[in-house]
Amino acid sequence: MIKFAPSILSADFRILGEQIEETARGGAEYVHIDVMDGNFVPQVSFGDPVIKTIRPCTSQVFDVHLMVLHPERYIQRMADAGADIITFHLEAAEDPAAVIEAIRGCGKKVGISIKPGTSLDAVMPFVRDIDMLLIMTVEPGFGGQKYIPESTDRIRKMRAYFEENGIRADIEVDGGIKRDNVDVVLEAGANVIVAGSAVFAGDVYANTKSFSEHFEEWNAERA
Ligand code: DX5
Ligand code: ZN
Question: Which residue of 32, 178, 196, 217 shows the fewest CB atoms closer than 10 Å?
Fold first, then answer.
């Protein structure tokens, strides 16, 4: 099943709660929340106080994408703030197995993310122990970048590997996904789709609905 995860990095923060509600009305099951520390990536975004503030706005799944060094330091506070899925970057973790354990210890779902230049082999030792693999389709750090075409092959390879080996983890994609290129990642095998600028530029409800309806059709055709 395809899930949709609008990234609030591109939202209008003056009316963040209302915009999240619009994505829920538009049919998005997840909210993608980009936490940036200004070290792992250049930008600083927001942290657990914001997550805690928006938690009562919606019952959508909170999909927290940690772009931070030393991710182990932030697990408990993300969990307490209301995260449902906590994804950390493989490149940022000294001991990925320990971070996986820490997230599980909080009773949350575990995601690992890899940057476009990180070899797929590097994540292989962990794929059996996670709920979601986030394959970045731009360099993490900013919204509004262009999809990196080489990503398609990486998604395809991981989906094939998961199928051959009975691995049930979701494959999420993040960066440069628009309504007019989303079929490329769906066909390659991604099933959790993040979009930031494509949702929050313009009519949030209509943009979300356009993606969600497309995913419903996609799900129905393959049911
Ligand atoms: C980038 C973030 C993304 C970002 C995507 O580092 O992880 O989630 O918000 O934005 P778009 O969809 O505009 O590329
Ligand atoms: Zn993200």
Answer: 217
